[in-house]
């Protein structure tokens, strides 16, 4: 029964598996570049406004990143500023123990975000999806996405007021003889605090994309599982999850590009109670070491390095995804 | 609700799927409890925000910040922020920028994603890379400003719309959804003589309502929340979007810049919360309209059914 | 003379000509002339603008030369006009960049106050306001873009300040130096030590937004102290600790302190810690390098251990003013301008605690920064610069003038009404009169007008701290590194203080932090100050 189901699912090429190789691309390869250009001209025309916008508003300013190799002074033009070779990169490659500590914290927090934060909206989306009442589902979802719209300044203040050492909970617990919680200002719990704040703020919002993916689940397949006597778990495992797998993989790959970037504002606002040893991450390190004072060249240098690392991770992850039969961000055709 | 909106055959199908083995009471209870806790975690602080916006200064002072329930509810904070018309004006500006920006963005992103979603088109991989890299490399604020200045867009609303027109993330996501639309349908349409634009508008978009809604929402929220470009590009305060006006209430009082002894910052906690609530209202109004497209089963079933 | 440099002496030397006082090189340099020290090393002299105290209205207690603010008990009701005619007649559009701390006012099209301002000045002031937290980014991009506004606020933390001012901004020396300032009587009312921060490359490049020498005050809840029968004016460190202990009662959510920095500085002032730097024979010692400063950090850590700090004090995110207002904390170290704000907002009785000596006697009181920031003009022809100076002169008119009343309160009957002898903003006034003109230029701060008992308290406090004011000997000296690295090296110290006071690290980690501070820029700052000092004409 099981195998019958699997065959059926596979035969239907459920969303999520890469499409069977279509004859067109192979034929396309045999055509010359010019022929293909001519063939696709209308399609290309559709994409043109977007490409132009990207070139104009992303790539032209990116030329300005050459200040990573210059001693840029705002009162001179970018061209007039003196070349300084790689000295701006010193802020990263100086072997400063504080930098290495910041890198360590960044990677740990990033890892926590991938392992703990990333799956939460998926689970939440599946949970919401399994609700029977459409009204309840929408209502709950509408509530959960609200925190996304609060700025970090307010979120941090709220957490402080609720969970601080003299906050609502501890005051209440203290007056009722319950154990108090030392959360804010506890160096050991800093990662946990940061991670749970991110979950609180964005988990509900992030369900949206997974709900959209779930909305594509093939009803026939669900029906088939149901007819075969499969319960809801079976439906989930054999139909729903495979259907959103490609979106999960895609988002995970893109997330890797941000590994070196963890919420600057969120962490910056909360460094004081736990100290820099526990809380310094790459972005705050850079900020605290000069960028705060308008060192544009160093800022550009750091951005370039982070971009290169991100690019390497994304491209590698994409390759790995291909090995597992996933499409990833782009296919290697 | 949506079940009614579905064609009869699908409604029956949903019943089969949902009805075969109703989940046990234990499972349902567990789900209920989990969601209840999730909601409570969100709702309690949110009530604090609303309550604080309605509380009087004395109670806020006594509580030292947020209050959980206003003892003497007052709309004074709301009256104060709407006085003088600054917030009203900024609301209109934000609504305009959001509407125009989101509409343009969705259009451009959909066109681009579609042109990148047909297998084997000319230059597809290079363009995809080009777009992917914009997620990884960002220019600094000065080169961006110089470009806006060269284009003559300083102090123009377009400076708040055009630079963020195409989001690589959205293009990639939308393309991923487009790629999952069965090729047979498109091929069939092509054989019937449909051109690319027709395929996009008559086949792709109708079956991709969910992702279109998601991208529209992402764009709307991004335009709605953006303030930093306005800081850099807009000189006349009449053209400020709501979030920048909000910032003059919130951030100036926060510990971000901090070290300015002697500069007098009036305490205005209730104002901050009131303007936060005001900034949430339009999003809350628009959301349900987009949310209905995330409903399950509408899309693929509609095509195949 | 030790490092205590009073403002009286400083100002006595700033009478108009560069007097060289033998032996007192620092003072002479500070007050009378200053050499460039940033980009060029020319030892050219510049004479600071003459300080001519405004006589528009006679205050109840006059400002003194050593930096005491003038005191007014009441608002003068018969106003004089400080400026005849319209100062900006024919200036057309005047673009002004500045920062703001208040909610943004309505635009000029729907702001009667702004329209009236333009008509009184005779020009079209186009004020570009930026929230203070974002201003530096805005200013930097505009400078990079190359099209400067006519007038711009130069933040104290703008990197490469000297180069930017010298290369891009108008040289004001010929218009304001020495007795030339007489053409702008309200600008002449700005004390000379504020002007010291406007000198770059041996020229005056900006006008200063003056701040009083009182700087930061340790505010106390005088009412709570009285209720508990405690001594509001501790005479030594021990008495201060006793006072703090008497005000702390964790069970009923009451603590003495809500933030760390102010307490360390306050204890440091009891121990005689230098104001940022100490100068001796041309050599500078940082306050952080003194054993007294280290001891102050250690003592603050002791106080924290004794539970005198609010449990969340280390978070730096507490809304300290609200907590002070509701009695959760009893002390708040804040700028002098906060006195009226705290008293008015929370309707509580606010006191100021002067620094006692550690073992009795007198401590020192750190002089505040002499200027909030400076305002510079775009390079332009002579007539245009003079026009801008005239407008700024109008914007700097002091209390008692028509111009001042309009600037601060708008139009009588529309934006404010008189109640019990004080102007009270109407609702329209509260929204429209928010244009941040005080961050373009302003008259020197004053005490009052206000409730008589409060003004008396403020006046008494001032008379206690002014004699023991300790100036920062680098005032008027320029160090590029000090500006460009200010945030970075300050952060090292701030984190070390928090680490120690919160008990995460031992007091001895202070030495490592100071070594790190020196390496990260502290030593370079010292070298630049020493060089700047040596280059000063004697």
Automatic annotation (TrEMBL), chain B:
Residues 91-286 form the ABC transmembrane type-1 domain. It comes from the Bacteria. The chain crosses the membrane at residues 33-55, 91-114, 126-148, 160-178, 210-234, 271-290. It is found in: Cell membrane. Pfam families: BPD_transp_1. It is a multi-pass membrane protein. Keywords: Cell membrane, Membrane, Transmembrane, Transmembrane helix, Transport. CDD domains: TM_PBP2 (cd06261). Signal peptide: none annotated. Belongs to the binding-protein-dependent transport system permease family. This is Carbohydrate ABC transporter permease. It comes from Rugosimonospora acidiphila.
TrEMBL record, chain C:
The keyword Transport applies. Gene3D superfamilies: Periplasmic binding protein-like II. Pfam families: SBP_bac_8. Its main location: other. It is found in: Cell envelope. It comes from the Bacteria. Residues 1-28 form the signal peptide. The keyword Signal applies. Keywords: Signal, Transport. Belongs to the bacterial solute-binding protein 1 family. This is Extracellular solute-binding protein. The lineage of its organism: Bacteria, Bacillati, Actinomycetota, Actinomycetes, Micromonosporales.
